[in-house]
Amino acid sequence: MKKQRNQFSHLTAIERVFLSFPAQLFLDKNLLQGKILDFGCGLGNDVKLLRQKGFDITGYDPYYFPQYPIEKFDTIICLYVLNVLFPEEQANVLMEVSHLLKPGGKAYYAVRRDLKKEGFREHYIHKKPTYQCIVKLPFQSMQLNDSCEIYEYVHYNHQRHSSSNCPFCNPQKTMILLTESATAYAMIDGYPVSKGHGLIVPKRHVANYFELPFKEQSACWFMANKVQEILSKKFSPDGFNVGMNINRSAGQNMMHATIHIIPRYQGDTVGAKGGVRNVIPKSKIRN
């Protein structure tokens, strides 16, 4: 299925000779720490102005500064990007920012709060149909006024989410997080069966995957594409097995739904038949 994409999302970028309100707020509050990334920097005004003040900041924008970052960052800012993207694009930005953030780092999202309605309208300068939508994020809100809201984001395993002892609701800080979206995260399995064995975990505490709301199921499978991409770049496997264990009779030990993304390598099993059809030996299958 082809991704929905707003081809004119870049046309909301404007030239400025001063810092944006969120960037100035971060500067005043001393929140711009270490190596900084402005994700979706548009024309790069904040990047240029903060560099002049001595900050180690990189700008990335798929249209204006398309060289994708290859390192990880202590601080990531993403200002007024999500409001001009379709939901699938928004989820992709959340996952990319999460993946580019160093463990223990912080990201900040600014979204508009002055929008009266959602949809396309002709841009007053570019005369092209530009899309605007209202965005709510499940992260800590640190600033809210009539114009914008600013969220602070830290990796899922650097927070306490419930009083339960479920290791997937409250994963350890030492866990290697691959990426995260609003409703799911992905990690390297603590007991990998192959190099790079990944695990996608919905944030909702549900034992049976099929009991998740459809929107959250879809988010998990959308994340599977991102995890496959990350693992392919890092480990160069020859193939993948993707699957779930649902209920104890199917091998589920932890009663929190997960999806396994298992890289496969030539020669990693004895014989050629190591796929999902051989999970149950043929001698045990009833006719």
Automatic annotation (TrEMBL):
It comes from Limnofasciculus baicalensis BBK-W-15. This is Bifunctional class I SAM-dependent methyltransferase/HIT family protein. It comes from the Bacteria. The keyword NADP does not apply. One of its GO terms (molecular function) is methyltransferase activity. The keyword Transport does not apply. Keywords: Methyltransferase, Transferase. Pfam families: HIT (PF01230), Methyltransf_23 (PF13489). GO terms for biological process: methylation. PROSITE patterns: HIT_2. Residues 164-271 form the HIT domain.
